DNA sequence: ACGATCGCTG
């Protein structure tokens, strides 16, 4: 019943004729830009004044400033101020030590965090739930969820206090490393799971494309009388858009509105994005108008999503209008804005313009993130400018940007397509050495590259390696191998592999059939080609 | 101290 398409969308028909692209004069939307830097400096000088006073101020005075700096995410500064404080002989209390642990965790310096943990005992304090939760979150953030669970077991055995947040942190940690099943198991051990825990599970299930299970958890909340809040609805709306059930998402939008929960900037941004992805740019732009009418201020994500939508349709002029509307409304472009524009120009075959924007980021003291580097590296590779791409790849390390599986895959693809097959294999070795595991994309790029370059042997080695490691090849993997075998005239082997593919439950797509049929025709095996052709038709693979 | 939105690889 919930899948009904007859959901009426109360929001969209009421869309105003308001043009979001006119400069705004409403004071509500003029941003009052606080300079974070000057606030930070003020806090530090205030701290130093306290530090040098004749009468030593109470520890709470320092604590207030430290708390402020942590809220401003100034972790390194907080750590150095605490060090100065202790150097002056002002000893931290438990709250300061907790704060220090928190700072080290945010900076992923867990060894330091745990040494502060030891200090808590040395000074005769007892860790509280905050201490333990912070350490568990620190472990989870680094992906060391198993360690967090072990830590949990230990502190429980020692009788230390945990609270409502503790299990939320662990459930979240498990979900974020893809262990949703384990997260659900953990949730099931809790008598009254919180709204947040339900949300974490529903979010993960939808991101892993399990809408039915996600719906079951939503239904469980309803049955148990747990009222859904704004974040729950945003998660459901986003997730159902993600699995392609946009009308269900709009159903949740209506449900939240009828429950008197007003959409916020997240809700509207999700709608803008999904409408852009459905190529309904007019409606996406209207949502921006609706949100302004509802006194919800669009943020950088709203504009980024809309701009990306226009770039996806190669509507560069409109995208530029969005950019100027955004600055008119006092919303500053961020790294992602630049990433979207760089990607837009590359899609538009204007790599030169993309490079200019990349340069502009330098001028604005913006450090491109991994995704931006990936975008440009891939764009350069695709037009054969491998050495330029390679320069950027090397530049990343110096700017503390981690190359990931996409970075390597793009470069490997570029190397393969420009006849540098040995270098491609060398880079595969290097990525593993650097702790980046190739995924199916990487493997398929390599197999394709080797086959096209006439190095079937290398392709077979990579394919065999995949099997040896217990991974399942996917359709593109089989297609690449089958095509490689056909190219070398090894039709029988190609057909044997095709049988194995089908037996393994990996069903051919239209490309598989095209490869096989054209190879059979080329080889004069017309009758066999026709058999495959009819099989393809009977499977309804022609659109 | 736990949850939600935008950009990158075949």
UniProtKB/TrEMBL annotation:
* Family matches, as InterPro entries: PPR/CCM1_RNA-binding (IPR051222), PPR_rpt (IPR002885), TPR-like_helical_dom_sf (IPR011990)
Xref: Pfam families:
PPR, PPR_1, PPR_2
Specify the species.
Vigna radiata var. radiata
Query: Which key words tag this protein in UniProt?
Result: Repeat
The stretches annotated as PPR repeats are: 93-127, 128-162, 194-228, 229-263, 264-298, 299-333, 334-368, 369-403, 404-438, 439-473, 474-508, 509-543
Tell me the protein's name: Pentatricopeptide repeat-containing protein At1g12300, mitochondrial-like
């Amino acid at each position: 019943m919930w899948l009904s398409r007859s959901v009426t969308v109360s929001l969209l028909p009421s869309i105003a004729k308001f043009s979001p692209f006119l400069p705004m004069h409403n004071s509500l939307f003029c941003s009052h830009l606080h300079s974070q830097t000057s606030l930070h400096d003020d806090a530090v000088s205030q701290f130093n004044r306290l530090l040098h006073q004749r009468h030593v101020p109470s520890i709470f005075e320092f604590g207030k400033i430290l708390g402020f700096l942590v809220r401003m995410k100034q972790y390194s500064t907080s750590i150095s101020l605490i060090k100065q404080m202790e150097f002056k002989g002002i000893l931290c209390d438990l709250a300061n030590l907790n704060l220090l642990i928190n700072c080290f965790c945010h900076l992923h310096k867990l060894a330091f965090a745990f040494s502060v943990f030891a200090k808590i005992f040395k000074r005769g304090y007892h860790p509280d739930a905050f201490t333990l939760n912070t350490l568990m979150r620190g472990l989870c953030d680094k992906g060391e969820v198993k360690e967090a669970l072990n830590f949990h077991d230990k502190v429980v055995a020692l009788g230390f206090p945990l609270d409502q947040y503790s299990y939320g942190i662990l459930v979240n940690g498990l979900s974020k490393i893809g262990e949703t099943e384990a997260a659900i198991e953990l949730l099931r051990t809790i008598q009254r799971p919180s709204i947040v825990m339900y949300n974490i599970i529903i979010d993960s299930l939808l991101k892993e494309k399990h809408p039915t299970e996600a719906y079951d958890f939503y239904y469980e909340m309803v049955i148990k009388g747990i009222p859904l809040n704004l974040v729950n609805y945003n998660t459901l709306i986003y997730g159902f858009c993600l699995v392609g059930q946009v009308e269900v998402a709009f159903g949740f939008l209506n449900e939240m509105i009828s429950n008197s929960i007003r959409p916020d900037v997240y809700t509207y941004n999700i709608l803008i994005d999904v409408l852009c992805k459905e190529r309904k740019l007019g409606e996406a732009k209207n949502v921006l108008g609706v949100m302004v009418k509802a006194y919800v201020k669009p943020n950088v994500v709203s504009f980024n999503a809309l701009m990306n939508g226009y770039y996806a349709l190669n509507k560069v002029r409109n995208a530029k209008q969005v950019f100027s509307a955004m600055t008119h409304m006092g919303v500053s472009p961020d790294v992602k804005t630049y990433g979207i524009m760089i990607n837009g120009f590359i899609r538009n075959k204007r790599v030169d313009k993309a490079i200019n924007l990349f340069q502009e980021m330098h001028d604005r003291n913006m450090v491109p993130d991994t995704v931006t580097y990936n975008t440009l590296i891939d764009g350069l590779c695709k037009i054969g400018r491998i050495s330029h791409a390679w320069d950027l790849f090397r530049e990343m390390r110096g700017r503390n940007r981690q190359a990931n599986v996409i970075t390597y895959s793009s470069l490997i693809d570029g190397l393969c397509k420009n006849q540098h097959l040995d270098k491609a294999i060398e880079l595969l070795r290097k990525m593993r050495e650097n702790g980046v595991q190739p995924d199916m994309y990487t493997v398929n790029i390599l197999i394709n590259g080797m086959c096209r370059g006439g190095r079937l042997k290398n392709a077979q080695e990579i394919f065999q390696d995949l099997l040896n490691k217990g991974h399942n090849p996917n359709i593109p993997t089989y297609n690449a191998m089958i095509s490689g075998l056909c190219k070398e005239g090894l039709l029988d082997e190609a057909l044997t592999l095709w049988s194995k593919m089908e037996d393994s439950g990996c069903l051919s797509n239209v490309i598989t059939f095209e490869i096989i049929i054209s190879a059979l025709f080329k080889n004069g095996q017309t009758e066999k080609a026709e058999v495959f052709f009819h099989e393809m038709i009977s499977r309804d693979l022609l659109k």
